[in-house]
Description:
Layout: H1 2-9, E1 19-20, E2 27-28, E3 31-35, H2 36-39, E4 40-42, H3 52-56, E5 59-66, E6 69-74, E7 79-87, H4 92-95, E8 101-110, E9 114-119, H5 124-134, H6 151-156, E10 158-162, H7 165-205, H8 210-220
Parallel strand pairs: 5-8
Antiparallel strand pairs: 1-2, 3-10, 4-9, 5-6, 7-8, 7-9
Helix pairs in contact: 7-8
Amino acid sequence: MALYKHWFVDFGPFQDGEFIDSELGPIPKGWEVKRLDDLADILNSKRIPLSTRERSTRKGKFPYYGASGIIDFVDDYLFDGEYVIISEDGENLRSRKTPIAFSAVGKFWVNNHAHIVRGKMRGINKLLISHMAQLDMNPFLTGAVQPKLNKQNLLSIGISFPEDVSIIEELLDEFHSYSSKQISNELENQSLTQLRDTLLPKLISGEVRLKEFKEQIESVL
Length: 221
């Protein structure tokens, strides 16, 4: 998310260039403000809510999504592919305790408490998730007690976007590199934790010496 903000909100890589005024503030020359519906299709008409009772008789392997993620598994699916799910209502739209936009991949079902969105070109799904994560939602919400992001307001959300599509490709490469490093660090941490849990009792019992312990730890780093 920090990478997206650096590129698409703070325009870090483009600070040396010329800027123009827009409804979102200054943006680099050669960029424009697009509405969300310029970049993605909204597929809400395909949603079908299932009551708790209905779901209890339709247990299966397909995720059943609500506004904040998977809430059950059912025996059929409505969508198959790569999509973005965006919360439509609920307190979490204000509190942001969990993400309000997240990826859903494969076969799944969605209820009517979440918008279902699909980017019109490669990479848009990732950009939408990152954009929603840093966006101040208050101007787009209705309902004092139960916050709601209706379809009309969702579609009106403005996003600064480059005319040069190669910039999107470059950002996606950065995303991929960043994600790969994250995964590598997580795997390294898992290996170190596993090695520690295995070797520490042996070190305490005298089964291995301190030198051997250090050597095995260093082999993972």
